[in-house]
């Protein structure tokens, strides 16, 4: 089989180029850019030979065509900061490095321009709507200036995980050749495979008399997706269920955009580069969910239409599939449009699956093989076994530490999970001893607490935080940081200032009033009350023991403890 063009320099040239690169300006690639560069260098994105130039970009956005006229549906651009763009001139070679500083490629910068991102969003993704993950990324994560130019590969980004499942296009082509696989149908996925997918992929392979390539994306997928470590273990668990010698799996380091129809066409072109002859496009392929009006961004079969229009030009045949549902009457999966009128069909949505995992409910065998569910349960235990954070906020002397201490003891008495208390004073002594009480330092202090609590939560522990945390925006930031890993329960210890001042257990209010301590919260520094905490405790009316009990009840109602 032919080879696709790779962009790596031969090893002797690479060594010399690497030595010369120490004098070049360096751009540290973002995680998405690392994926893009790897796909460019190994030929996954052929015919591209670098990041799009301005003329290519204009053509791709407007009509899915490079300046040469070749089809290319997705902008692959190197976005940088204004500061970096200001240092670079066209004609210059720059070094592209990974996050650790390892040199991956050199780029001859041919174009530098500031794109109109709203126009790009509208043309490429069909909507300038922040709810679209790619539009959100484009506007809030990607840098404002684009650089275009050819790449010369020095060293492929290293992957330490699942190496035996990773292949470049040419490696996979060579394997297909060796195995005598002349017809290969690829299945793109960013989800664990359940029975519906297995059925669909087997039917597709039979229908077109081809071998099957399960080709999951492990670069970047939709935020909130099951992590690729879990997914790959799920795929491994079911590979043997496919008829022998028919099916293989390879991991694709693509950074998805969730761009619906254009993305589906892009996926098909990439699979063509990997030597596949057929490509499965299902319902709502690479769909990004709903827009601001609650409507889907794309029609369920728009992707199929666009791929069909271009399949001859790309040189890969589409295998279209309708959604598969389980027919209880026939005890088998069938495409939705083949279901008889009185047939009972069963389906478990993604949301329902997540709920069942969270609560620890049964997931039937008709839906997914037990070995897949076992893998999912390992990394998605029910909520009462997951880590979580309880974040107390309130004025100094409001009773945060006292309640947090009482709660810690109660949770330790239950003995379910390890508990760590990140009390304001303790943190200031150990983690944040150099910080003052300026806004900037308070924010830094809270972010540090959030980071540690996030790590504890991720690893299945309980983090109890009890800082003042006077700023709402910073609390929100910490919440979203932690909610990636587990539940975040904000508790406002709402003791009024007069009472805190009256108690003045540490004598700090007196000092603050006397001007001896400056920037004291509530006296000459602000406290922004939480608008929607999970729980608000009025310590004037309840004892610390009762307050801790209120928190326990809240945690129970959230399903975090039993
Ligand atoms: S913050 O804003 O969240 O970073 O504050 P925090 O780290 O929780 O504060 C810890 C304790 O520092 C004492 N302290 C002050 N608090 C507020 N303002 C000023 N200027 C200040 N100086 C010292 C105060 O006792 C805080 O402890 P708690 O437990 O809240 O009383």
From TrEMBL:
One of its GO terms (biological process) is sulfate assimilation, phosphoadenylyl sulfate reduction by phosphoadenylyl-sulfate reductase (thioredoxin). Its EC number is 2.7.1.25. It comes from the Bacteria. ATP binds at residues 394-401. Residues 386-538 form the APS kinase domain. InterPro entries: APS, APS_kinase_dom, ATP-Sase_PUA-like_dom, P-loop_NTPase, PUA-like_sf, Rossmann-like_a/b/a_fold, Sulf_AdTrans/APS_kinase, Sulfurylase_cat_dom. Keywords: ATP-binding, Kinase, Nucleotide-binding, Nucleotidyltransferase, Phosphoprotein, Transferase. Coiled coil: none annotated. One of its GO terms (molecular function) is adenylylsulfate kinase activity. It catalyses: adenosine 5'-phosphosulfate + ATP = 3'-phosphoadenylyl sulfate + ADP + H(+); sulfate + ATP + H(+) = adenosine 5'-phosphosulfate + diphosphate. Gene3D superfamilies: HUPs, P-loop containing nucleotide triphosphate hydrolases, Sulfate adenylyltransferase. Residues 3-155 form the ATP-sulfurylase PUA-like domain. Pfam families: APS_kinase, ATP-sulfurylase, PUA_2. Pathway: Sulfur metabolism; hydrogen sulfide biosynthesis; sulfite from sulfate: step 2/3. One of its GO terms (cellular component) is cytoplasm. Residues 165-378 form the Sulphate adenylyltransferase catalytic domain. Catalyzes the synthesis of activated sulfate. NCBIfam families: apsK, PRK03846.1, PRK05537.1, sopT. HAMAP family: Adenylyl_sulf_kinase (MF_00065). Belongs to the APS kinase family. This is Adenylyl-sulfate kinase. The lineage of its organism: Bacteria, Pseudomonadati, Pseudomonadota, Alphaproteobacteria, Hyphomicrobiales. The gene is cysC.
């Amino acid at each position: 089989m032919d080879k696709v063009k790779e962009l790596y320099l031969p090893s002797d040239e690479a060594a010399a180029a690497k030595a010369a690169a120490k004098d070049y300006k360096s751009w540290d690639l973002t995680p998405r850019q690392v994926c893009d560069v790897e796909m460019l260098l190994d030929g996954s994105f052929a015919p591209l030979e670098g990041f799009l130039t301005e003329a290519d970009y204009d053509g791709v956005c407007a009509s899915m065509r490079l300046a040469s006229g070749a089809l290319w549906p997705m902008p692959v651009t190197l976005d940088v900061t204004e500061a970096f763009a200001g240092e670079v001139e066209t004609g210059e070679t720059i070094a592209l490095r990974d996050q650790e500083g390892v040199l991956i490629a050199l780029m001859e910068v041919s174009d530098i321009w500031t794109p109109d991102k709203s126009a790009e969003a509208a043309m490429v993704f069909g909507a300038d709507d922040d709810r679209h993950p790619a539009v959100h990324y484009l506007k809030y994560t990607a840098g404002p200036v684009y650089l275009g130019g050819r790449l010369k590969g020095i060293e492929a980004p290293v992957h330490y995980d699942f190496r035996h499942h990773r292949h470049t296009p040419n490696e996979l082509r060579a394997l297909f050749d060796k195995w005598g696989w002349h017809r290969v149908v690829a299945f793109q996925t960013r989800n664990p495979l359940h029975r519906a997918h297995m059925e669909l992929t087997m039917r597709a392979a039979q229908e077109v008399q081809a071998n099957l390539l399960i080709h999951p994306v492990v670069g970047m997928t939709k935020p909130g997706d099951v992590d690729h470590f879990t997914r790959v273990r799920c795929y491994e668990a079911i590979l043997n269920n496919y008829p022998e010698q028919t099916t293989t799996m390879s991991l694709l380091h693509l950074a998805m955009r969730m761009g619906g129809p254009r993305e589906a066409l892009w996926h098909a072109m990439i699979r063509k580069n990997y030597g596949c002859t057929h490509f499965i496009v299902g319902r709502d392929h690479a769909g990004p969910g709903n827009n601001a009006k609650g409507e889907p961004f794309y029609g369920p079969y728009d992707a199929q239409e666009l791929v069909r229009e271009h399949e001859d030009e790309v040189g890969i045949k589409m295998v279209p599939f309708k959604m598969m549902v389980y027919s209880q009457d026939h005890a088998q999966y069938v495409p939705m449009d083949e279901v008889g009128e009185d047939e009972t069909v069963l389906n478990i949505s993604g949301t329902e699956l997540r709920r069942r995992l969270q609560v620890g409910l049964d997931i039937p065998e008709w839906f997914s093989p037990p070995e897949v569910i076992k893998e999912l349960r390992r990394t998605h235990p029910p909520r009462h076994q997951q880590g979580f954070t309880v974040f107390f906020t309130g004025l100094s002397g409001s009773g945060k530490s006292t309640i947090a201490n009482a709660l810690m003891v109660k949770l330790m008495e239950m003995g379910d999970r390890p508990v760590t208390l990140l009390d304001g004073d303790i943190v200031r002594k150990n983690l944040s001893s150099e910080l003052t009480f300026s806004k900037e330092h308070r924010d830094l202090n809270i972010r540090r607490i959030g980071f540690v609590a996030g790590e504890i939560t991720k690893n299945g522990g309980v983090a109890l935080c009890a800082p003042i945390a006077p700023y709402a925006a910073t609390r929100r930031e910490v919440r979203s940081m932690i909610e990636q890993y587990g539940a975040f329960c904000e508790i406002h210890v709402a003791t009024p200032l007069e009472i805190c001042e009256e108690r003045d257990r540490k004598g700090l209010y007196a000092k603050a009033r006397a001007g001896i301590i400056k920037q004291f919260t509530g006296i000459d520094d602000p406290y922004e009350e939480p608008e929607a905490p999970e729980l608000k405790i009025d310590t004037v009316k309840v004892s610390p023991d009762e307050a801790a009990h209120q928190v326990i009840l809240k945690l129970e109602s959230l399903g975090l403890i039993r």
